[in-house]
Amino acid sequence: MKVSSKGEYALRALLVLGENQGKIVSIQEISEKTLVTVSYLEQILLRLKKLGYLESKRGTNGGYLLNRDTSEINIGEVIRVLEGPLSPMGCASITKYEPCQLEPACQLKPLWSLVRDTIAYVLDQTTLEDLLENRLTFMKGEDLLAFKKTN
Question: Is 36 helix (H, G, I), strand (E, B) or coil?
């Protein structure tokens, strides 16, 4: 799985809007805080609006605001709708499965499936609120299997 600039910038924009929950934020302000051009941001914000994460207000004091509470915005869901499957390889994908040349004897498929499941678990357990509240901790090795958010 590789997160494109679209996915990265969408999360940056959601963070800016989450920091200003309930307030209308201009696209210019979002652009300045995310370091994303207004023209590229327009495309991303329009997509997030169509997906139901945002609403927009027109006019001189117009802009964007979250359409959901930060606790209801799941990062795994956002990444999937913007980027597609989380699997690093097609043979391990659940939604876009592509057999490899070595199947059924491929010895790498379990590794790619574990990577997919680990990425999915972490992203699916994370909300926008978690990111805003800095509730994630970095873990190594066996500790990652016991991934949890700090309180």
Answer: coil
CB 14 within 8 A of CB 53: yes
Q: Are 88 and 116 in contact (CB under 8 A)?
A: yes
For the record, the structure tokens of 55 come out as 């609403």
CA atoms within 13 A on the CB side of 90: 8
Fold for the domain defined by 5-66 = Arc Repressor Mutant, subunit A (1.10.10)
Q: What is the mean pLDDT of residues 110-133?
A: 88
Supply the angle between the helices 5-19 and 27-34 in degrees, to the nearest 10: 120
Amino acid found at 44: I
Are 54 and 17 in contact by the 8 Å Cβ rule? The answer is yes
pLDDT score for 150: 55
Cis peptide before 104 (omega within 30 of 0): yes
Sequence ranges of the chain with CATH classification 1.10.10.10: 5-66
pLDDT in tens, 1-37: 678 899 999 999 999 999 999 999 999 999 999 999 9
